[in-house]
Amino acid sequence: NAGVTQTPKFRVLKTGQSMTLLCAQDMNHEYMYWYRQDPGMGLRLIHYSVGEGTTAKGEVPDGYNVSRLKKQNFLLGLESAAPSQTSVYFCASSSWTGGAFGYTFGSGTRLTVV
Amino acid sequence: SQKIEQNSEALNIQEGKTATLTCNYTNYSPAYLQWYRQDPGRGPVFLLLIRENEKEKRKERLKVTFDTTLKQSLFHITASQPADSATYLCALDIDTDKLIFGTGTRLQVFP
């Protein structure tokens, strides 16, 4: 039982480049989330999904896009990376509403934009 | 806007003592409050959830209280061990499908 798997674990991008972060979960969870974590800022919600084919904006969605074509996968895209997007990105999933059940997090992707 | 405050300063305690971490929030009335543990370089791990109508929840050496009048939660680790050293995050539901997180408090338990 792998839980939540994020790929890649590390990446260095040049300003203006694009990339996609992949999140896969094998727990049949309906809800999936993308957070970024920065020193002193805590975890901030970027985008989330309440089911296959649905996505919604979180607290800091600008510069990111997401897709949930399959229930088990949630992709986070950066179309034109900026240094301000240097961060650690975490994907999470939950079986129902986030309030009633704890989230399961992946191990994170450390992204540096130079 | 909703705001969650956790002590940004590290908490250093001696092994065997009880560690108490605080989570305060403003401008919101959450139905649930959660606590997570995060180790360096790892994702947060869910520990406990407490509902607004529950005053206290326990799990092994962990205890969480939730005071909706004070808008505060306390997280206790009894008989603390060096292995308990980590950052602890509290989180609140701001909608039925979203959580917001505090910045966390780092706990260091020394022998």
Your description of this structure?
The complex is a heterodimer of chains A (114) and B (111). Chain A has 114 residues and is mainly beta. Chain A has no helices and 11 strands. In chain A, the strands form 2 sheets. In chain A, strands 2, 4, 5, 6, 9, 10 and 11 form a 7-stranded mixed beta sheet that branches. In chain A, strands 1-3-8-7 form a 4-stranded antiparallel beta sheet, with no helix packed on it. The radius of gyration of chain A is 13 Å and the shape is globular. The N and C termini of chain A lie far apart (36 Å). The model of chain A has no long low-confidence stretch (mean pLDDT 94). In chain B, 0% of the residues lie in helices and 59% in strands. Chain B is globular, with a radius of gyration of 13 Å. Chain B has strands at residues 3-6, 11-14, 19-26, 32-38, 45-51, 56-59, 62-67, 72-77, 86-95, 98-101, 105-110. In chain B, strand 9 (86-95) and strand 10 (98-101) form a beta hairpin.
Q: Based on helices, strands and strand pairing, what is the structural class of chain A?
A: mainly beta
- Which radius of gyration of chain B do the C-alpha atoms yield? 13 Å
Radius of gyration of chain A: 13 Å
Largest interface: A-B, 27 and 26 residues
Oligomer state equals heterodimer
What percentage of the residues of chain A does DSSP assign to strands (E)? over 45%
Mean pLDDT of chain A: 94
Q: Helix- and strand-based class of chain B?
A: mainly beta
How many helices of chain B does DSSP assign?
A: 0
**Average pLDDT score of chain B:** 93
